[in-house]
Amino acid sequence: MEVMVILVPLALVLGLLGLLGFLWSLKTGQYDDLEGAAWRAIFDDDDEIPESAPPQKDRG
Amino acid sequence: MLLTRDFSHYVKELDSGVAHLDLAVEGVSCAGCMAKIERGLSAIPDVTLARVNLTDRRLAIEWKPGVLEPAQFIDRLAELGYKAYPFEPLRVEAMEVERSKFLLRCLGVAAFGSMNVMMLSVPVWAGSDMSPVTRDFFHWLSALVALPCAAYAGQPFFQSAWRALRARSVNMDVPICIGVLLALGMSVVETINHAEHTYFDAGIMLLTFLLVGRFLDQKMRQRTRAVAGNLAALKAETATKFVGPDEISEVPIAAVRPGDIVLLRAGERCAVDGTVIEGRSEIDQSLITGETLHVDAERGVQVYAGTLNVSGTLRVRVSAAAEGTLLAEITRLLEHALQARSRYVKLADRASRLYAPLVHATALLTMLGWLAYGASWHDSIVIAIAVLIITCPCALGLAIPAVQTVAAGAMFRAGVLLNSGDAIERAADIDTIVFDKTGTLTLPELDVVNAGSVSEEVFQLAGRLALASHHPVAAAVARAAQAKSPLRDVVEEPGRGVRAMLDGVELRLGSPAFCGAERQAHEILEADPEVSVVAFSRGAECHVLAVRQRLRPDAAKAIAALQSRGIAVELLSGDREPAVRHAAATLGVSKWRAAITPADKIAHIEMLKRQGRKVMMVGDGINDAPALAAATVSMSPISATDLSRATADLVFLGKELAPVLAAVDYSRKAMSLMRQNLWLAVGYNIVAVPIAIVGLVTPLIAALAMSGSSLMVMLNAMRARRVRQGIV
């Protein structure tokens, strides 16, 4: 049972980290636009890729 | 005259030294638009940020102050194909955003707390071989997590309960606070006494579930307000103000002051109250009075905000702008009517008014009962607390907001925006609907009624010629002909019409006299005095087009569907009798009154209410606003004047009347689900409370029962998404 003394506080600290992460994400406005954020992930920002970048492989 | 546009009124200088502007953008519907707009604007040098919010269809732009004009962004967006308008986020809206963030923070903390306390509680419940020392250790850890979490996450409830107590009343938050505080306090005492059970988990979980309810409630209102705010901004009118003797500037209405002189061109809607100082025209006051016939405007005549300038150009000296444009009488009637309505008691409030004393009495009686039976003080109090926890209005707190949120989403998709959550409850009860005619049953724009009497080719030409004019009748012709390409070198003759040369033949569009078509116009007006006419001539050949306000395309069907649901439909209009009679006959409405004043409308609605009827008023004009406020529940089309929209509980979008029906159907469904949910909560208590009273509730049972009832209520609320299909 001694191992509990380490494991339980460890679990709490991990949980606390999760909470801090949530509060941080809330504060930086990550939940302001849930619809837009979902789409931003799949933007093809081709024009921001430098000219020298190798062309993407065609997987089709 | 030189025209500039000045939107600097809306630009904010941020602390970080950049200029910030919020734009409401029309037509942003997908990720493609988002990417297009952001790239298009970021390409402008000196723009430091361009970010679209797809949830509330808004665009935030930041740039180095002084180098760019707001109008440039609007032009650029117009090039990209989007209509945009700057706006100031309302203070109420900003407060709601703050509030919902706060609730989300509380929810996060409470969820963290309940998860971890649960993690500590489950071993205690399961571990029959657990040593008392380990159990105490787990209890102390639970206290360490639960107490600070509850202190933070419980704030919304503590504050509201404290406010209620200070005002010497009781709301639902009072029993919540007592339950949570007693449970936590008792658990600390039990922990110190090395007892077997504590209630930390139940207390913090209760807060979590209740916060979900609060957050849903808040989110629903916030979203509706954001979308409604956008639509208002996109409709927001600008005024053309004289900034020098010969220099005019297009400014937002918020920047117009009494004493300014504004220019009002043909086809523009007047944005201010004022007196005509130069020019001659006709004014369409249908939005104010409901009267479709035009009144003459000349020097010295008063014009009001919301009226439409039909034919000539006017210079108007502003007497009241922005805030003060409304007729004093209407405002007074409005305030009076709103006060009368605030007596409506929400379902949630009614439920909690019954609930709070009942819960407290049960807990108290339980304790006294056990004492009388011979139990110790300690045991009696523990059992009483168990009763308080298990009855705590967890399901009750979710029952109503969860349904409201789901129903509001469904109504949004059906084209209805909610201004308040309890609008659903009030709309579900109605048995009478009173419609205004102009702009509500009819479309706000004019429509050509005899397009079939001229050849397609002629109609097209008339439409292309009409594109050059601002006149509303011409606009109706252009719209009906779906004209896209304007003719070249069109000459406008003020007060008469427009003309142009095409292939050596002169085309004219305008008054019958201007086109030499008085005889035909006379015939049309003879047959139907309701219409307005516009003549079109090509050389010697001439045609007359009749234009009128057309009923919404599905008005008759929607009204029949409402009547089939047992709702009485009436028509009240400030318009003349023949016009109202015609509309009523077409729609199959037997009860109607014409040519009545705003005060008459209120009187009529009050009379209906005295007869015990629950009345929904649907209207759009400034003259309807007091009646809207007097009715049990009110609805406006989005094309309504600002005042009506602000007064209405529900706002509907689009050209059809179907959203009115949808509002009724969804509200009724939602209301029955809310009632079901309350009964579910009551049923749960009937089962759970006796178990608690006889002292069998362990924390495990309390936690299971509470979560179970909450989940049941949430799942039931999901059903508000669908109703039996609307129009027959």
TrEMBL record, chain A:
Species in which this protein is naturally found: Rhodopseudomonas palustris
Signal peptide residue numbers: none
Annotated transmembrane regions: 6-26
Organism lineage: Bacteria, Pseudomonadati, Pseudomonadota, Alphaproteobacteria, Hyphomicrobiales
Keyword Nucleus: no
InterPro entries per the UniProt record, alphabetical: Cyt_oxidase_maturation_cbb3
Sorted UniProt keywords: Membrane, Transmembrane, Transmembrane helix
PANTHER family given in the database record: FIXS PROTEIN
Pfam families, per the entry: FixS
Protein name: Cytochrome oxidase maturation protein
UniProtKB/TrEMBL annotation, chain B:
Main location: membrane
GO cellular component, one term: plasma membrane
Keyword Cell membrane among UniProt keywords: yes
UniProt subcellular location: Cell membrane; Membrane
UniProt domain HMA: residue ranges: 19-85
GO molecular function: ATP binding; ATP hydrolysis activity; ATPase-coupled monoatomic cation transmembrane transporter activity; metal ion binding; P-type ion transporter activity
TM region(s), chain numbering: 102-125, 137-158, 170-192, 198-216, 354-375, 381-403, 677-694, 700-718
Keyword presence, Hydrolase: no
A Pfam family that the UniProt record links to this protein: HMA
Domain of life: Bacteria
Keywords assigned by UniProt, alphabetized: ATP-binding, Cell membrane, Membrane, Metal-binding, Nucleotide-binding, Translocase, Transmembrane, Transmembrane helix
BP GO annotations: metal ion transport
PANTHER family xref list: P-TYPE CATION-TRANSPORTING ATPASE
Family of this protein: Belongs to the cation transport ATPase (P-type) (TC 3.A.3) family. Type IB subfamily.
Protein name: Nitrogen fixation protein FixI
